[in-house]
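Just wondering, does anyone understand these tokens?
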Amino acid sequence: MTETPTETAEAIVAKRVDSGEPDTAEIRELARAAGYEVVGEVTQTRTEDAALHIGEGKAETLARRVRRTGATVVVFDNELGPYQTFNLGNRLPEGVEVIDRFRLILEIFGQRARTRKAQLQVELAELRYELPRAEAKTSLAKRDERPGFMGLGEYDESRERDIKAQISRIRDELDRIEQTEEHRREQRRESGFDLVALAGYTNAGKSTLLRRLAADLDVDENEDVHPDLDTTAESEDRLFTTLGTTTRRMDIDRRDVLLTDTVGFISDLPHWLVESFKSTLDSVYRADLVLLVVDVSESEQEIREKLVTSHDTLCERNEAPIVTVLNKTDAVGDDELARKREALSALAPNPVAVSAKTGDSVDALKRRIDDALPDYRHERLVLPMTDDTMSLVSWIHDHANVEAVDYGDQVTIEFEARPAVVEQSRAKAGDLVPAESA
């Protein structure tokens, strides 16, 4: 697994696009998130060169820039084939490393993976990245009868089999972890919790919003019930600050809610990389409600593209309602906000505009969460006056919104709760009241 560099390495970022003007803002942020200091950039607008990805002349420009700045790494905001990487490396000063966008993302993930689940997902993504390169080495070396063809290293067919076997092993372990987490989610629902997930692109402010919604509340860290609850969620202006999931407890009026922040989306990820982190996204897919957070200070075009991609990702497996949250209203004026609301209305109908940074309109968001979550069911139980009944009344107070309790010859309790809690309360009451008198 990739480790954080002990010293800050200096990097040149490079990007090629087929048309238009290359934008390097995101790749610079990604490089910074990985721990690199960006000391220059080289861009080009042209069709892809099969051998170098960029053109011959631009490759020479890149080499001169590297020599002038003393950079030790070149980061491409593109996907490079193994032969393009090799050829580019031959054009650069000795010792300069060439990495592409996805290798960089894997570096970041490797640095941020702290839990066993996150580490497994990073390892899975790295293996999926390596597999086609191992296959290419074997295929071309066989064809040309030259081990180490084009400097790609000795080929070994057993390496392909080893990678595939490792992928299968990791998938099995991730499946077991997911089964445990799904059981935990069902336990939480049975305990009366609504599950809300934060989704959206990196740097949209999800972690800040999580802290804003739950900052003043204690977190139940009972390992038997909620072993993965964290008391804090980092909030930095950095990409991929959150890699695993962070869950906080919050109260919204009559409800108990668990709010989970997870890894942010990022543009242009290949299917194999998204699939490697599928089990992390299950926290989103299996929620009762998804808050899709977007940075409203970005351009309309950027927001539109991110909303489309987010909906495509979520709607593949998600069945929960989605509420769009236009975050960072402190960074835009009222007229700009109104204009963007109107322009994005087809993709984000009736969004909630907030500032997680200042807390503006967060109470309105809480009301919206309450309205969007599954309806509670009303129940009225009449129970005998016994010690066991008192225990059941206490349990209902812990798991439901109690409206009234009348203590007389019998105990009458009225409450509203999630359907699962209502069913459990009926079952518990059935153990106290004979069927003919219930």
The chain has four domains: 10-110, 113-181, 192-372, 377-437. The radius of gyration is 27 Å. The chain has 14 helices and 13 strands.
